[in-house]
Amino acid sequence: MKRSLLSFLLILSMALSGQNLKLVTEDDIPGLQLTNSVFYSNQDLRNYSGSTADLILEFGFRALNVYDYSFQNEKVRLEVYTMEDAPSAFGIYSVSVSHCLLWNRWSTFSCTNQNQIAAALGPYLLNIRDMNKIGSGQSLCEQIIQQIITKNPQESWYMPPLFQSPKLGRYINTLKYTEGPKGIAAVAPQLLDLFEDLQYNCFTVDITDRGQVGILARIQFPDFNSMDRFRSNAGLNNDQQTGPVMSMNGLYRSWYKINDTKLLYLECSTPNVKLSDIIPDRPDLYGGW
After folding, report:
1. How does pLDDT run across 242-268, given as a tens digit for each residue?
2. Which H/E stretch holds residue 113?
């Protein structure tokens, strides 16, 4: 009876959230039990996520389903964040993970740490962790995440071709995607003032090798005026390409205008790093910017 009730609640919560994800069941892992299922909407996300709710909402949050599983003495919790699209799911994934022990084992974008696995899967962010926090549930976490990814093939979403070039390949695990001030504050707070009152989407990678500290951003705006305001905020001239120029914060800024709504922006601790050093000579070979 209890199992039937939990199965009903599982189906109900998925229907309410619009989630079409096929979850793991006892048929997939004999002995696995679903012990609890809770659904969170935009209105009550803060009850679960606390102060991070604003960041999640900024990325286009749709729903959160939380599932508790048990297997023998192991207890794990699976969080399924349904976002508005694949870039939004990657965005919240990218600003949530760091210092991974193992990158991209389970999907194109996944992060494995002790007691926890996170993965971006189409419009979903999956986060599963060992509730005992002693490592015994890591194998169960891996089985569940593998089963879910296998049962839910998603249309491939690719990062901008620029970041697939060999020059930027070594930075790929620092790739972040943001759409608003909460995201920028988490990724690059020193850029927050440059984006004030602007709409945009922004991919960034950290440039940190050879003793250099910097950030490269590919930013897209809804119109030319927004891009021009950003350029003005950054203190850069209106040429096709500028830099490095020392800013008020002591860092060096460069930019490259891709078109009327898209640009590359580099901010670095030294003037010795130029955009030409880290972007491909022939972007067309990688599908453009």
Report:
1. 778 888 778 899 998 888 999 999 999
2. strand 109-113
Angle, vertex CA 127, rays to CA 154 and CA 122, nearest 5: 15
> Helices (DSSP H) in the chain: which residue ranges?
2-17, 46-49, 53-58, 86-96, 138-151, 166-169, 181-187, 224-233, 275-278
Domain containing 244 equals: 161-286
Domain count, the chain: 2
In a domain, 156, yes or no: no
Q: In what order do the strands lie in the sheet with 116-121?
A: 33-40, 61-71, 74-83, 124-130, 116-121, 109-113, 102-103
**Is residue 169 located within the same domain as residue 278?**
yes
Note whether 80 and 62 are within 8 A (CB): no
Q: Which amino acid is at 124?
A: Y
**Could you tell me the two tokens for 190?**
């020193």
Q: What is the pLDDT of residues 105-130, one digit of tens each?
A: 888 899 999 889 999 999 999 999 99
Task: Indicate whether 134 and 196 sit together in one domain.
Answer: no
Secondary structure of residue 116 in the 3-state scheme: strand
| Separation of alpha carbons 87 and 201, rounded Å | 10
pLDDT in tens, 153-184: 887 777 788 888 888 888 888 999 999 999 99
Q: Check whether residue 143 and residue 177 sit in a common domain.
A: no
Q: Give the H/E segment covering residue 61.
A: strand 61-71
Angle at CA of residue 152, ends 150 and 156, nearest 5°: 95
Are residues 7 and 137 located together in one domain of the fold? yes
Does residue 88 belong to any structural domain of this protein? yes
- How far is it, in rounded angstroms, from Cα 28 to Cα 74? 17
From 99, 128, 151, give the residue that closes a domain: 151
Q: What is the pTM of this model?
A: 0.86
Cα 179 to chain centroid distance, Å, stands at 11
Indicate which CATH number applies to the domain containing 142. Answer: 3.40.1000
